[in-house]
């Protein structure tokens, strides 16, 4: 059984709770590369969610490279591990390059990051 909980009372949408929960389990090593994950319908039934909600979470995880779908074989944790850290590193490098082009110092760059994080 896929041990994930989704709170129907949370301000965070259920698909996002599911996406974050899967990603957290991948990062912790609980879901290793190649692990088969439940079908959309099975997980929707287990979590009392609409199938489209689970499908959206799976699509976003697939777009992030965390999950890969192999047709009739099902969906699996991608063998690439946790590509979100790589994407975050590339985004940070791109940000620093942009800040340098604009001539901003490190303190200003960090202030923009702090403001952006506070706004999220």
From TrEMBL:
Pfam families hit by this protein: GntR (PF00392)
UniProt entry tagged with the keyword Transmembrane: no
Domain HTH gntR-type, residue spans: 12-80
CDD domains on file: WHTH_GntR
Record-linked SMART domains: HTH_GNTR (SM00345)
UniProt keyword terms in alphabetical order: DNA-binding, Transcription, Transcription regulation
GO molecular function, one term: DNA-binding transcription factor activity
Keyword field contains DNA-binding: yes
Domain of life: Bacteria
Entries under InterPro entries matching the protein: Tscrpt_reg_HTH_GntR, WH-like_DNA-bd_sf, WH_DNA-bd_sf
PROSITE patterns: HTH_GNTR
Protein name per the record: GntR family transcriptional regulator
Highest classification ranks of the organism: Bacteria, Bacillati, Actinomycetota, Actinomycetes, Mycobacteriales
